[in-house]
């Protein structure tokens, strides 16, 4: 079993299976009965906790607004953003009725949700887990593998890009239970992980973590040992000093390092390079997220540098990019393609459930298109400032199954305006969907509410985009090569397998021999994580970095 983790981003080791609260998105359940129909003839008035409350009639749905913010436990005061809580006295039953009606009104596959009596469930989160489709895709994976919730306070902190205590390194877990195998996939500049000590960075790509504060990470499994590993790998506060024994790729010996945690936010652009080739200079840009808001400026600066260098081709590394702000991915699409291909065309159009009639069931809007933004929109580039562009008719994208949501939208959006996308790596995650996070009574719920389609009306890639020479019988195949992630070379190194394959394909139109699928490292699924005894997983990456985040500047 494999997985990935980000230090300081809520990945922690554990000795027992997870509680239902820790990964509610993984819960399945329910049948597949399509039952909605008509609106109720007589609305049911919500009643305070202690009274009889609303009653359930199968297939009859009251307006969700009748039950909104009617809570069993009422919050008081102000939230993280300084807004007063909207809660009113209510009941668990009313919270469940809100979830039921809200799902019926907004869920993309609302006709595939079994209508269950809210009175039969004492926990709204457990009830919410069942309010989704149980259909599968062509490959057999769940069609809706993105259904989850989190405490609203956590959501607000992530939405505001609140820094978290960490070291500035991201990990992959090849094995999450003994014998564990945790390795670094990248570090961020100017962080404890990349600090130079005696001529060597604390951590490099491929470094394996062997011990934490004297405890054997590979084999230890007692409760006390797990606590020590948790405290060191995933510090709760800035300023914590922890000691690690590590082994670098290819090294016969180990090193001992010490790092002090800092409050950090993930930068969008991790590194760039200009690669000289006999047929022109090739740009390389590693973009790891379209959030936080500073990503608008980071990406614009990187493309400005590529343009100044006069690159004739671009390798866009999205292998670890789980998504983020859709508007910024649309800006990146423009910066790659330029005005001639994008002018007057859409980057993405939202498609809703069949009952919506073209109207966004969440916002009520009728224009649900995202253009290829050619100017700053005010996140971190002033609104109206022109963006640089490379005016390319082809782009090489490095991808894995961590390439998801808004980063997949870059692929789909460019294909919609006839920019050739050459895909190097593995199949992307397959998430042409998104949602509008919604708070109710202290929990923020994420239910799939739309599918994104490009200028040509295409958005059916639930099994991901996949390189053409793959033996897989599912997924949308694109020109390119199947290549595994290579931890023996730094990202941006011309010898790194995925980048080398892109350069080979560009020069000769050929691919290296594809690796067997059995050796591919994949992130831990939600179901897998809950069953593992090696990780106390809340989320491997920040929620807002794994979504089509539809926000615009206020």
Task: Give a description of the structure.
The protein is an alpha+beta fold and 554 residues long. It folds into three domains: 3-11 and 163-264, PDZ domain (Pdz3 Domain, Roll), CATH 2.30.42; 29-133, no CATH class; 269-429 and 464-521, 2-enoyl-CoA Hydratase, Chain A, domain 1. 18% of the residues lie in helices and 23% in strands. It is built from ten helices and 32 strands. Strand 13 (241-247) and strand 14 form a beta hairpin. The two termini are 42 Å apart. The relative contact order is 0.15. Residues 1-50 and 518-543 have low confidence and may be disordered.
Helical residue percent?
A: 10-25%
User: What is the CATH architecture annotation of the largest domain?
Assistant: Alpha-Beta Complex
CATH fold-level label of the largest domain? 2-enoyl-CoA Hydratase, Chain A, domain 1
CATH superfamily of the largest domain: 2-enoyl-CoA Hydratase, Chain A, domain 1
Uncertain runs: 1-50, 518-543
Rg measurement, Å: 24 Å
Largest sheet descriptor = 7 strands, antiparallel
**Discrete helix count:** 10
Task: Tell me, rounded to a whole number, the average pLDDT.
Answer: 86
User: How many strands?
Assistant: 32
Number of domains: 3
